[in-house]
Amino acid sequence: MGYGHSPFFASWRGAIKFMLRPRYYLLKGYKKYKSGYFKIATLREEYILVSEKGKISELLAAPADVLSFLDISADEIQSRWTLGDSSPWHLGLISGKLTQNIGTMTPGLVKEINFALDRHVGSPSKFTPIALHNVIQKVVAQAVSYAFVGHPLCRDEVYLGNIRAFTRAVRVSAELIRPFPDSMKPYLIRLTPVWRRQKFAEELMHSVVLARLRKTYKAKEAKPVDLLQWLADTAPSRERSVTKFVERLMRMNLAAMHTTTSILTGAVTQVALAPDLYTETLRNEVLPLRENGSITQKTMLHAIKLDSFVREAGRLNPVSMIGLMRVARKEFCFRDGTIIPKGTRLGVPTVAIHQDVSLYPSPEAFDGFRFSKLREEHHNGTMMHEAGSTDLDHLTFGHGKHVCPGRFFATDVMKLVLAVMVVRYDFKMPANTKPRKRYFGEHEIPDFSLRVLVKATGNR
């Protein structure tokens, strides 16, 4: 797409055009080649994008030693050097312990969300502008930190500022070292922002991590319910050091905060764009579902409009417009005979699938209750159409064996933050203001400068 007819510098022409209009070319390619494949170029690589569902299923079913997810992940953010060369043994804790304990954590998460909002927004008696993305990022950082490391770090502004800066530092540092040979990267990484953020995190977390590693609990003694404790309980001997623990926790902070902040910013923006349509409906759903005046896990389980709102925000605010990316470690052949040579990069045009009119009526429009209507129409007790569920029509969190293991935690944090915010505040958009869509390659960038108006309702 965008290569033109001349063979000379074709991929460069395609890359420049894609850089200028990525969304346009993904939608155009999907529409034109919906039953097969199309190729796009970025400034770094070319991708074969798979459009048809059966072929996407083939891509997902391919063995990891043929089509590799980890190779893409490692290259995108140069993770071996920016995040540390470590095995993913902790992923079982994310999909297991963290997901299983969401209910136990909910009261504490709500308390930290309220604390962060008191700190960064307050209770304005008249409509007051806030920098939305900045506020959401700070609230998410505090909530995630409560679940990951508990008190006192989850309220330490220096610690929270460092993990927020770490997210940006990873991307910057990856681009700084990318042009150099791998043999130089262990030395060059020490000159980058991510190295400084990592070392500062070790200083801030040293005593807390060491105390958890050394603490021995008696049989009936209550342990902290957070990710740091589960790491301390299960880490293999080679991982039981402050450096290794901090390295792993920072890796998980990156995964938890980036997508959550982007989608949640999009969700709150939609409330501000159409307050008459959404604010009272969401608020009136949440308030009666509270228990003893508090938002609980039961509130979240039964607030299907809130859940739908988060899922719709994810549909229209994918962090990457290309998903399910793989690298061919070996030659791969689709059932239709299409051969993918070794070294080829593949993916799926997520943004185009999410804009497919055959899947979503009026797909370009935000309909906060799109999925709650579907759940009401097809109520059968399944998780279909819930915010944390995935399928070939909804790829916000991926799909298949490499689906995001923390998606249920992420969606619960988003729902809790949104629930607390619509209960506590009225929203509206300043006059003549609209959020701006910006893109960098295949990535959609939130409008960091967007300000919305908030006013306290008096509810807590």
UniProtKB/TrEMBL annotation:
UniProt entry keywords in alphabetical sequence: Heme, Iron, Membrane, Metal-binding, Monooxygenase, Oxidoreductase, Transmembrane, Transmembrane helix
Cofactor(s) this protein cannot do without: heme
CDD domains assigned to the protein according to its UniProt record, in alphabetical order: CYP503A1-like
Keyword Metal-binding: yes
InterPro entries cross-referenced by the UniProt entry: Cyt_P450 (IPR001128), Cyt_P450_CS (IPR017972), Cyt_P450_E_grp-IV (IPR002403), Cyt_P450_sf (IPR036396)
Compartment(s) where it occurs, according to its Swiss-Prot or TrEMBL record: Membrane
Domain of life: Eukaryota
Family in the record: Belongs to the cytochrome P450 family.
Protein name: Cytochrome P450
Species the sequence originates in: Apiospora saccharicola
